[in-house]
Amino acid sequence: MTMRVPFAASSVATARQQLKKWMVENGGSRDQVEDGRVVISELVANSIRHAEPLSDGTLLITWVYERRGVRLSVTDGGSPTRPRKLNAPSSALAGRGMAIVESLCLSWWAEQNRSQSTVHAVLAMS
């Protein structure tokens, strides 16, 4: 599944809804669907908060089954910093996004080039 969404906060809900529909149609359990919704929300929100849009003003969001599970990916126009897990205290209002992604996923990684950045996360699916 591939979708292009506006580089806007409203795209978090759009991605969450479309992923839920796709995961339910493909046999995802309730827990898997909810974990997927949290992960895609964090990835999209982080792009909007920390990066630039793609040249057409959008984000590219994809998900696909692979051997280990579902790979969720968000591509934006890049950022001067790389995504990383922070050890933010529980009282912090921000900074826990990638720690949440890491706790729910088998793995995550980022790829960057001159014009874009993609963050991938693999969610276990049985």
From TrEMBL:
Organism domain of life: Bacteria
Domain Histidine kinase/HSP90-like ATPase: 7-105
UniProt keyword terms in alphabetical order: ATP-binding, Kinase, Nucleotide-binding, Serine/threonine-protein kinase, Transferase
GO molecular function: ATP binding
Classification via Gene3D superfamilies: Histidine kinase-like ATPase, C-terminal domain
Name recorded for this polypeptide: ATP-binding protein
Species: Nocardioides jiangsuensis
